[in-house]
Design the sequence.
């Protein structure tokens, strides 16, 4: 069984590979791809694999955008850290979906389901995809978030957050005068935010539009941001996201 993994988090990709090795299935991982752009290029140039594991939120956008730009005939098992996507992903004719962190028992069940499927995967339905993309681009606005303070939790307003970042597997949220620990992964957090107000500029940083003070060109076709209360953080928009980030700033 030839497998392609589409995942922008190296740690998550390694975890999936380790779980696959613990399964009873014979497989070969052809490639691991971390962006919509590179996925489109790969599927256009290569023979279809037997199965694709595909994260929903990639470095440069939602993986559903891949199907708008090229044909993917292989069955898809979607993976996601935030379960609002689970039912929606299933409607896009995937074999299954897996919630992160992925458990061995769930992966094995998805693989057995794939092996029992005798019919090829259905093509992605354009009308379902259109509705799906629309719903994800306009999430219900979240007003508050629980953060750790001392031995307990307090709620702060989302509007107070200037940016969020991940360090040593801990998610931090920064306001004008304080740093908080947020008990969510970066993917879970970003998926729950209003994407017209917050942008995930790279794998480890989410910024609020109101916190951006300056945008400057940076090497390798990237841009560097000056942000309120930077706290020794450097804010570089990844190369894959630079064009989309500029479009986001213009809205």
Sequence:
């Amino acid at each position: 069984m030839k497998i392609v993994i589409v995942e922008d988090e190296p740690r998550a990709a390694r975890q999936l590979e380790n779980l696959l090795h613990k399964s009873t299935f014979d497989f070969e991982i052809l490639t691991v791809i971390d962006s919509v752009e590179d996925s489109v290029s790969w599927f256009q140039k290569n023979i279809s694999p037997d199965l694709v594991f595909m994260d929903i939120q990639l470095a440069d956008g939602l993986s559903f955008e891949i199907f708008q730009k090229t044909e993917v005939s292989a069955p898809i098992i979607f993976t996601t850290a935030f379960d609002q996507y689970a039912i929606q992903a299933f409607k896009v004719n995937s074999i299954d979906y897996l919630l992160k962190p992925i458990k061995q028992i769930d992966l094995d069940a998805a693989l057995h389901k794939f092996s029992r499927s005798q019919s090829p995967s259905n093509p992605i339905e354009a009308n379902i995809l259109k509705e799906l993309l629309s719903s994800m681009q306009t999430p219900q606005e979240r007003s508050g978030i629980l953060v750790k303070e001392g031995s307990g939790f307090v709620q702060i307003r989302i509007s107070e957050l200037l940016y969020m970042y991940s360090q040593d597997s801990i998610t931090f949220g920064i306001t004008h005068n304080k740093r908080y620990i947020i008990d969510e992964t970066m993917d879970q957090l970003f998926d729950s935010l209003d994407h017209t107000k917050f942008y995930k500029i790279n794998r480890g940083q989410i910024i609020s539009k109101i916190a951006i003070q300056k945008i400057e060109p940076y090497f390798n076709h990237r841009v560097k941001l000056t942000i309120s209360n930077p706290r020794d953080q450097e804010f570089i928009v990844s190369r894959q996201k630079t064009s989309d980030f500029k479009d986001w700033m213009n809205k």
Notes: The chain has a mean pLDDT of 85.
